[in-house]
Amino acid sequence: MSATLSIVGIVAGDRVYPATRALAGSIVPFLLLGIYVLYVRTDHTRQLWAWEIRSPMSALMLASAYAAGAYYFSRAVFARRWHHIGRGLLPVLAFAALMCAVTIVHWPLFLHDNIAFTLWAALYFTTPVLVAAAWWVNRREDTGRPDEHDVAVPDRVRRISRGIGLVGLVTAGLSLLFPGPLIDAWAWPLTPLTARVLCVIFILFNVYLVALSRDARWSAARVDVESLVVALVLIVVGVVRTRETFIWSRPAAWLFPVGVVAALVVCLGSLWWAGRGRAIRESPTPDETEKVRVIGARSSGIAS
């Protein structure tokens, strides 16, 4: 029985509960709407968004984070196993909870008459509780077992990921509390509100890194890494679109694009590495090929 389960790829436990799928599916439309407004109608945030975003790159950054979320939650709806998506809920929880806090702190700056603000408030005042509940209840399903032909992430890579993530969390956390220095040094113009939103986005990405470092199974990291690729590609395009608004006399204006491209290369490289590793594991060895040939010949009566 256990051999059959292994062959067809079914693992006892490791289920994604229907409530988790339903939550993921209900969040996707909000994110797609945000992507449309912020990435396509970037110059119309006063009419279409929860608050006016005057710097276009700030709008594109938030849209890129939403795109990563839309990809992640779309995958979560159809995920075969809980551990494929489980780690990704923790960054989402941090992002939603901090966005709720930023909304409260900057409440007077929001356009309360816009329908977009109603949707924004509904999303960020409910999502932290719902995501936390989904993660807490569904986490018991993780058996700790890898997928068939899974690839192990090297310990050194996980330590580097954890180190970068922790440093990034400390830096972004301090800037979230005290945004003044970030506003003075950043690559494009920021307000206290957009500076804090930017910090929350950075915290989202760095929680990803820390969460991924906690599990050696590539199958537990793949969806999250793919989500990061989606965000990073859109950020690169955003930099090209809004390059005229960058303050190129500031070092951050040069360091930010370089860092984004470097992160994108690393993510794409990890996807290539893991895909190659799975292909090698899935390919039968010469001994296995010979066994299959002999067994097939015997079953057809060719061999004695």
Shape: globular
CA(first)-CA(last) distance:
30 Å
Would you tell me the structural class of the helices and strands?
mainly alpha
Element-level helix/strand string: HHHHHHHHHHHH
Whole-number average pLDDT? 89
Helices and strands, with pairings:
Elements (H helix, E strand, L loop, with lengths): L1 H7 L9 H23 L4 H4 L7 H22 L11 H17 L9 H24 L16 H23 L2 H6 L6 H21 L9 H20 L9 H32 L3 H14 L5
Helix pairs in contact: 2-4, 2-6, 4-9, 4-10, 5-6, 5-9, 7-9, 10-11
Question: Can you describe what's shown?
Answer:
With 304 residues, this protein is mainly alpha-helical. It has one domain (12-143, 158-299). It is 70% helix and 0% strand. It is built from 12 helices and no strands. The longest helix is centred in the last third of the chain and has 32 residues, at 251-282. The two termini are 30 Å apart.
Please sum up the structure shown.
The protein has 304 residues and is mostly helical.
Features:
304 residues, mainly alpha, disordered N terminus, disordered C terminus
